[in-house]
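Many introductory courses stop at the sequence. We go one step further.
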Amino acid sequence: MGNIQLLLRQHVGAPCEPVVKAGDLVKKGTLVAKPTGLGANIFSSVYGVVEEIKEDRIVIRPDEEQPDEYEKIPEGTPLEMVKAAGVVGMGGAGFPTGIKLDAHLDHGYILINAAECEPGLYHNIRQIEQQSDKIVRGVKYCMDIAGADKAIFAIKKKNEKAIDALRTAIKDEKAMTIHLLPDIYPMGEERAVVRECLGIELETTQLPSAANAVVVNVETISRVTEAIEERKPCFLKNMTVIGKLNGGNEPHVYMDVPVGTSVGEMIERSGGIDGLYGEIIMGGPFTGSATTEDAPVTKTTGGIIVTIDFPNLHGAKVGLLVCACGGSEARMRDICEKMNGVVASVARCKQAIENKPGAPLKCERPGNCPGQAKNNIQFKKDGCEYIIIGNCSDCSNTVMGSAPKMKLKVFHQTDHVMRTIGHPLYRFLRVSKQVEQLPEGK
């Protein structure tokens, strides 16, 4: 095991402040950093020695021997223990769970986000298949803390084995039901979960609490269970490693990876990179970003993806259609550069809203998008030959309604990932042909 690097910002809010110094001995579960405002406690994930305190991280040299025992959080109320354990939204959002659950709902709902919406990721579904009883216990804790009377599991209809496990686990739970989702992106977006489960359309500025609900990710719920039942700090992460790997491009699912483990170590555990590759992504194909083998796993790391190489556009002019459901403009510019294209025009999806300057874009109606012809006309006027889109399933479908007619060749920002893992490309909102049958730029 190489050095563990614990980033001081692994959550929504400000970076945490170290409470250890170089030379300190730490154990699994030793508190190493506390929030200075909105945030969550950070714990050592290994036995070892603090080697260095950097501006943005704590570096720990692990011992050769790694006992299973860990330092436990103090006993308290369920809510106090969730806060003490440093549990955050582990589906990628990173919002402190203790604050989210302190909702004081009025006979409301806990909505369990089991959509695992990013293609290629499977660890949430695997956990449901293997640990459904643990998750159901966690849901009960969340209901009690938040003041919810009912719970709904939002899960894609295609995940039949996981659904069967859930049905068995909740057969005697009258307050719990299952809502089956279509297999389109982004059904896992928080407001989409509320809309699908409760039929309530939230504004881009509204939280699920406005619908008398709290949305919690599957893994987050399991960490709530551990905090309350085992007094266990949150220092482990479930994840999927997939892509151009010597171990095969099927998903490699890992449970309870020590936070701070390097991306490179997880890739090596999966057989190592298979020859030349395009990039390494941390996160999912839509919302992840390029990373390096030295980067550390955090509480919100869901996926590590090694992709095939990018096509070469040979300096052609490219339009970028930035969507709230996909990568930021910076991410799309990065992809365009890696494809050897030149950005000639940038437009936003017509439903992408910036609630305040510099804030991440929000979609008015996630997964339900009208036409994009106006943006395609702009790209054509600006002399673009190609466009790169980062849109949801429905939005991609609407782009394809007009782009080919204007002789604009379309790439989705996820194409290199989809081709790597053998997943249909995001184009039309219907059952697609197999990836290898789809020519590039069509």
